[in-house]
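quick one before i forget lol
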Amino acid sequence: EEAREIMDNYRREKLRMLAVLDVPKDTDEAAFRKNLAQTKSFAAHFAATEEPPFWELGNEPDLSFFFPAGMPRYLEGFSTLADAIHIADPNTCVLNGGLANASHRKESAIRIREFFEGLARGSRRPDRIAYHAHGPLFQAEQNALARLNQAASEEGLSKLLWVDTETGVAAAGPDQENL
Protein backbone atom coordinates (compact mmCIF):
# COMPACT_ATOMS: atom_id res chain seq x y z
CA GLU A 1 0.00 0.00 0.00
CA GLU A 2 2.81 2.41 0.92
CA ALA A 3 4.71 1.54 -2.26
CA ARG A 4 1.60 2.29 -4.34
CA GLU A 5 1.29 5.72 -2.75
CA ILE A 6 4.96 6.50 -3.38
CA MET A 7 4.71 5.39 -7.01
CA ASP A 8 1.52 7.42 -7.51
CA ASN A 9 3.36 10.49 -6.18
CA TYR A 10 6.24 9.85 -8.59
CA ARG A 11 3.88 9.53 -11.52
CA ARG A 12 1.94 12.66 -10.53
CA GLU A 13 5.21 14.64 -10.47
CA LYS A 14 6.34 13.01 -13.73
CA LEU A 15 9.37 11.46 -12.00
CA ARG A 16 10.82 8.11 -12.96
CA MET A 17 12.34 5.86 -10.36
CA LEU A 18 15.17 3.41 -10.17
CA ALA A 19 13.99 0.46 -8.09
CA VAL A 20 16.85 -0.99 -6.07
CA LEU A 21 16.45 -4.56 -4.90
CA ASP A 22 19.07 -6.79 -3.33
CA VAL A 23 19.89 -10.21 -4.66
CA PRO A 24 19.72 -12.45 -1.56
CA LYS A 25 23.14 -12.50 0.08
CA ASP A 26 22.83 -15.82 1.87
CA THR A 27 25.89 -18.05 1.90
CA ASP A 28 23.73 -20.98 3.04
CA GLU A 29 22.23 -22.75 0.01
CA ALA A 30 18.81 -23.48 1.53
CA ALA A 31 18.43 -19.93 2.83
CA PHE A 32 19.49 -18.53 -0.55
CA ARG A 33 16.91 -20.64 -2.40
CA LYS A 34 14.11 -19.66 0.01
CA ASN A 35 14.95 -15.97 -0.06
CA LEU A 36 15.46 -15.94 -3.82
CA ALA A 37 11.97 -17.41 -4.35
CA GLN A 38 10.44 -14.77 -2.05
CA THR A 39 12.40 -11.94 -3.68
CA LYS A 40 11.48 -13.18 -7.15
CA SER A 41 7.78 -13.16 -6.22
CA PHE A 42 8.03 -9.63 -4.81
CA ALA A 43 9.99 -8.34 -7.82
CA ALA A 44 7.56 -9.80 -10.35
CA HIS A 45 4.56 -8.36 -8.49
CA PHE A 46 6.15 -4.92 -8.09
CA ALA A 47 7.26 -4.85 -11.74
CA ALA A 48 3.79 -5.81 -12.96
CA THR A 49 1.86 -3.40 -10.76
CA GLU A 50 4.16 -0.38 -10.48
CA GLU A 51 6.25 -0.65 -13.66
CA PRO A 52 9.39 1.16 -12.53
CA PRO A 53 11.35 1.98 -15.68
CA PHE A 54 14.71 1.03 -14.15
CA TRP A 55 15.97 -1.59 -11.70
CA GLU A 56 19.37 -2.00 -10.07
CA LEU A 57 19.79 -5.44 -8.53
CA GLY A 58 22.15 -5.22 -5.59
CA ASN A 59 25.05 -2.98 -4.76
CA GLU A 60 28.73 -3.56 -5.43
CA PRO A 61 28.67 -7.36 -5.66
CA ASP A 62 32.41 -7.26 -6.33
CA LEU A 63 32.98 -6.45 -2.63
CA SER A 64 32.35 -9.22 -0.09
CA PHE A 65 31.22 -6.83 2.63
CA PHE A 66 28.29 -5.90 0.34
CA PHE A 67 27.75 -9.35 -1.20
CA PRO A 68 29.36 -12.14 0.86
CA ALA A 69 27.99 -15.06 -1.19
CA GLY A 70 30.39 -14.72 -4.16
CA MET A 71 29.98 -13.73 -7.79
CA PRO A 72 28.58 -17.05 -9.12
CA ARG A 73 25.72 -16.84 -6.62
CA TYR A 74 25.20 -13.15 -7.41
CA LEU A 75 24.91 -13.93 -11.12
CA GLU A 76 22.46 -16.76 -10.45
CA GLY A 77 20.29 -14.53 -8.29
CA PHE A 78 20.56 -11.63 -10.73
CA SER A 79 19.50 -13.84 -13.64
CA THR A 80 16.50 -15.22 -11.77
CA LEU A 81 15.29 -11.79 -10.67
CA ALA A 82 15.97 -10.07 -14.01
CA ASP A 83 14.03 -12.78 -15.86
CA ALA A 84 11.06 -12.43 -13.48
CA ILE A 85 11.09 -8.64 -13.78
CA HIS A 86 11.25 -8.73 -17.59
CA ILE A 87 8.42 -11.27 -17.81
CA ALA A 88 6.27 -8.99 -15.64
CA ASP A 89 7.33 -5.80 -17.45
CA PRO A 90 9.16 -6.28 -20.74
CA ASN A 91 9.72 -2.53 -21.13
CA THR A 92 11.85 -2.04 -18.04
CA CYS A 93 15.65 -1.71 -17.94
CA VAL A 94 17.45 -4.00 -15.48
CA LEU A 95 20.97 -3.14 -14.33
CA ASN A 96 23.35 -5.21 -12.26
CA GLY A 97 24.31 -3.90 -8.85
CA GLY A 98 26.88 -1.24 -9.66
CA LEU A 99 30.39 -2.65 -9.65
CA ALA A 100 32.55 -0.81 -7.12
CA ASN A 101 35.52 -1.27 -9.39
CA ALA A 102 37.75 -0.72 -6.37
CA SER A 103 41.13 -0.97 -8.08
CA HIS A 104 42.92 -0.81 -4.72
CA ARG A 105 41.20 -4.06 -3.60
CA LYS A 106 42.36 -7.31 -5.19
CA GLU A 107 39.03 -8.92 -4.31
CA SER A 108 37.19 -6.40 -6.48
CA ALA A 109 39.36 -7.14 -9.52
CA ILE A 110 38.89 -10.90 -9.07
CA ARG A 111 35.12 -10.61 -8.71
CA ILE A 112 34.85 -8.25 -11.67
CA ARG A 113 36.69 -10.82 -13.78
CA GLU A 114 34.26 -13.48 -12.50
CA PHE A 115 31.34 -11.21 -13.39
CA PHE A 116 32.44 -10.83 -17.00
CA GLU A 117 33.43 -14.52 -17.22
CA GLY A 118 29.90 -15.40 -16.12
CA LEU A 119 28.37 -13.11 -18.73
CA ALA A 120 30.64 -14.58 -21.40
CA ARG A 121 29.57 -18.12 -20.39
CA GLY A 122 25.90 -17.24 -20.85
CA SER A 123 24.60 -15.73 -17.62
CA ARG A 124 21.80 -13.28 -18.32
CA ARG A 125 23.28 -9.94 -19.31
CA PRO A 126 22.04 -6.80 -17.64
CA ASP A 127 20.35 -4.36 -20.01
CA ARG A 128 23.05 -1.91 -18.95
CA ILE A 129 26.23 -2.55 -16.96
CA ALA A 130 26.15 -0.42 -13.82
CA TYR A 131 29.38 0.70 -12.22
CA HIS A 132 30.56 3.19 -9.63
CA ALA A 133 33.19 5.75 -10.52
CA HIS A 134 34.50 6.58 -7.07
CA GLY A 135 37.23 9.17 -7.03
CA PRO A 136 37.92 12.73 -8.05
CA LEU A 137 35.83 14.29 -10.80
CA PHE A 138 35.59 13.12 -14.41
CA GLN A 139 38.98 11.39 -14.31
CA ALA A 140 37.49 8.77 -11.98
CA GLU A 141 34.72 8.19 -14.52
CA GLN A 142 37.20 7.73 -17.37
CA ASN A 143 39.49 5.47 -15.34
CA ALA A 144 36.67 3.28 -14.04
CA LEU A 145 35.15 2.83 -17.46
CA ALA A 146 38.53 2.06 -19.05
CA ARG A 147 39.28 -0.63 -16.41
CA LEU A 148 35.86 -2.22 -16.84
CA ASN A 149 36.00 -2.14 -20.63
CA GLN A 150 39.40 -3.88 -20.44
CA ALA A 151 38.03 -6.59 -18.13
CA ALA A 152 34.99 -7.12 -20.40
CA SER A 153 37.07 -7.24 -23.57
CA GLU A 154 39.36 -9.88 -22.03
CA GLU A 155 36.27 -12.11 -21.94
CA GLY A 156 35.32 -11.25 -25.51
CA LEU A 157 32.54 -8.89 -24.50
CA SER A 158 32.16 -5.67 -26.45
CA LYS A 159 29.49 -3.13 -27.30
CA LEU A 160 28.19 -3.16 -23.73
CA LEU A 161 26.03 -0.28 -22.58
CA TRP A 162 27.35 1.32 -19.39
CA VAL A 163 25.82 3.58 -16.74
CA ASP A 164 27.48 5.12 -13.69
CA THR A 165 25.00 4.82 -10.83
CA GLU A 166 27.21 6.18 -8.04
CA THR A 167 30.05 8.67 -7.93
CA GLY A 168 32.07 10.34 -5.21
CA VAL A 169 34.77 9.38 -2.79
CA ALA A 170 34.82 5.70 -1.88
CA ALA A 171 33.84 4.66 1.63
CA ALA A 172 36.54 2.96 3.69
CA GLY A 173 34.10 0.22 4.70
CA PRO A 174 30.52 -0.59 5.68
CA ASP A 175 30.64 1.57 8.83
CA GLN A 176 31.57 4.66 6.86
CA GLU A 177 29.06 3.75 4.14
CA ASN A 178 26.26 3.78 6.74
CA LEU A 179 27.01 7.31 7.96
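fyi The mean pLDDT is 91.
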